[in-house]
Amino acid sequence: MMASSTDPAPRKYSPRGGQAQDTIRIIRAYVVKRLVAETTDRGASAALVTATGLHSSHVAQVRQGKLSPGEDFCRTMAAHWGLTYQQLEDVARADSAMARHEAEPTS
Q: Which of 40, 70, 86, 105 shows a CA-CA span of 20 to 30 A to 57?
């Protein structure tokens, strides 16, 4: 069945539901964590901006926690890291699970 020209554009992800929201939160947290880790050296942010085409103020605001990375930002970073969006999601989930496991108290 073909979509009519009046149908809205398909969503890239569904923000409804707890699982979808949780996935988005995990991906965003991972992207910020990795972005901060990779841009601590002098000039690293400038190199990232040049390589990705992202605006320097946008990268700075995400690094500082003033702005949450959107899906396009996350997709751009995934491509920069040589990952598909699905691979980024998988890596983010694994990183989140490892962080939760490390935070568990040992008996």
A: 86
What string of pLDDT tens digits covers the 107 residues of the chain?
444 445 454 445 555 556 689 999 999 999 999 999 999 999 999 999 999 999 999 999 999 999 999 999 999 999 999 999 999 999 999 999 987 766 666 66
Closest to 63 in 3D by CA, of 80, 38, 84: 38
54, 76 contact by CB (below 8 A): yes
The conformation of residue 10, written as its DSSP 8-state character, comes to: P
pTM, to two decimals: 0.76
Separation CA 71–CA 16 (nearest Å)? 15
| Interior/surface letters 41-75, b for 16+ CB within 10 angstroms, e for the rest | eeeebeebbeeeebeeeebeebbeeeeebeeebbb
